């Protein structure tokens, strides 16, 4: 990730500086720090960073200012990756963000304490992937709707889809589930076929599959 430019938006100054320090330690160029959404948008428009890390709740109302800023950034600079941080898991927020396509992530703030996991999430988003917090994925797995569109999937296929929802690549899924990458590819193809997703590019079909997974709560 060396050389990747980033803007950090977080109203808690200690957390903001901590995040900026973690990113700088991995070679990212921190172009600016913002304490509210207005300053964030000013910085983003002025510097056009490769990545933005933004808190969902920011001044003045501490509700969804950060989320709204993330939407604006996606609309104005679709090539900029956006990693949204939240103090708690909000299913609807996560689904809305993931629907934005490539280079988008939703991570709980508690995940930042695992430095390697946080760096891995940043790297996936910066590389064009999608990241959903594992805690949110676990919550959704245990809260299925009665009419489950995933009923057509085998237990292993559901496991693979859950890993996809966390933003894992095929290689990453293989390592986590202790199976070969070829087996993962086979399961991914089966998932996409069984969910009857439209024939688009592979990345977009994976996103659609994850959206189906998130909606099956």
From TrEMBL:
SMART domains given in the database record: HTH_LUXR, REC
Positions of modified residues (4-aspartylphosphate): 55
Ranges for domain Response regulatory: 5-124
CDD domains with a match to the protein in the record: LuxR_C_like, REC_NarL-like
InterPro entries: CheY-like_superfamily (IPR011006), NreC/VraR/RcsB-like_REC (IPR058245), Sig_transdc_resp-reg_C-effctor (IPR016032), Sig_transdc_resp-reg_receiver (IPR001789), Tscrpt_reg_LuxR_C (IPR000792), WalR-like (IPR039420)
Domain HTH luxR-type: 146-217
Domain of life of the organism encoding this protein: Bacteria
UniProt entry tagged with the keyword Cytoplasm: no
Key words, A-Z: DNA-binding, Phosphoprotein, Transcription, Transcription regulation
Protein name from the UniProt record: Response regulator transcription factor
Species the sequence originates in: Paractinoplanes ovalisporus
